[in-house]
Amino acid sequence: MPLSSRHLLGLDGIPSDDIKLILDTATSFREVLERPIKKVPSLQGKTVVNLFFENSTRTRISFELAERRLSADPVNMSADASSVRKGETLKDTARNIEMMKIDMVVMRHAAAGAAHYLSQVVRANVINAGDGAHEHPTQALLDMYTIREKLGTLQDVNICIVGDIAHSRVALSNIYGLRAMGAKVSVCGPRTLIPAEIDRLGVRVHYDLDEAMAGADVLNVLRIQLERQDRCFLPTLREYSQAYGVTPERLARAKRPIVVMHPGPINRGVEISADVADGEHSLILQQVLNGVAVRMSVLYLLGTAN
């Protein structure tokens, strides 16, 4: 069955059937990544433009690997090397690229809603790789895949998202997606980094990390998004680490098994200690591997539905 939309712009309002289809399809592609020859001809002849107007390492490489594993032809474009620096609009950039007969666009942009706008001015499939502090749907999907792979289900699993909730596109997409799949979601962080009325999204709010961990099965730890902050929200990073840093001592006090995730990049010693990031509780490297499979799934489902 195809997805209900020809684009992946976010997880707000996405049907649970779509999420399940993406995760189930990713399982097949996860097996492909374990083969000696990690390639299938599913998107042979398709051209995918990776249009990144913000810096990225993991997401960009993950998408390009996913495209190549599906035998698509990736074309990479960054803002620094584009005509945007000369004043060209996003609309003109996209339409000029589309006239070169491309099939799909993967875009990261600093402006919230940029991917939605792009989907209205081009005929190609659009995948949102992060738009400002709005959404990052494929990161949330790979997080959900990793949790389901580890725990066997998302239904009734308690996931606590810790850190800079106010400026994180990962947090918002995770809340939408996890709630759609029946998970119980809470957020934890300083009051200055928790959006007002976020509880209206159906999440519990904690300001004390030890209290939040007492009922959590999964901690999804976010970094402080200094590049998106227009003022100081914290006294010091050291004080933040003391209050909200995930350490072995905190995990031991929880007295229940908790798995730890992080979308990266990690600020070791700030939001998470090195011992936790590299330890037995961590699923961080598994998230990276699963990211390729999940992005293969999204590209395949969108690229073969036309």
The shape, in one word, is globular
Radius of gyration: 19 Å
How many β-strand stretches? 9
Mean pLDDT: 92
Structural class: alpha/beta
What is the strand content?
5-15%
Short recap of the structure:
It is built from eleven helices and nine strands. By secondary structure, it is an alpha/beta fold.
Structure description:
This protein has helices spanning 16-32, 58-69, 90-98, 114-121, 137-151, 169-180, 209-213, 237-244, 248-254, 274-277, 284-303; strands at residues 47-52, 73-78, 104-109, 125-131, 158-162, 184-188, 204-206, 218-221, 259-261. The protein is built from eleven helices and nine strands. By secondary structure, it is α/β, with parallel strands linked by helices. Helix content is 38%, strand content 15%.
Give the topology, please.
Layout: H1 16-32, E1 47-52, H2 58-69, E2 73-78, H3 90-98, E3 104-109, H4 114-121, E4 125-131, H5 137-151, E5 158-162, H6 169-180, E6 184-188, E7 204-206, H7 209-213, E8 218-221, H8 237-244, H9 248-254, E9 259-261, H10 274-277, H11 284-303
Parallel strand pairs: 1-2, 1-3, 3-4, 5-6, 5-8, 6-7, 8-9
Helix pairs in contact: 1-5, 1-11, 2-11, 5-6, 5-11
What features would you highlight for this structure?
single chain; about 300 residues; alpha/beta; 9 strands; globular
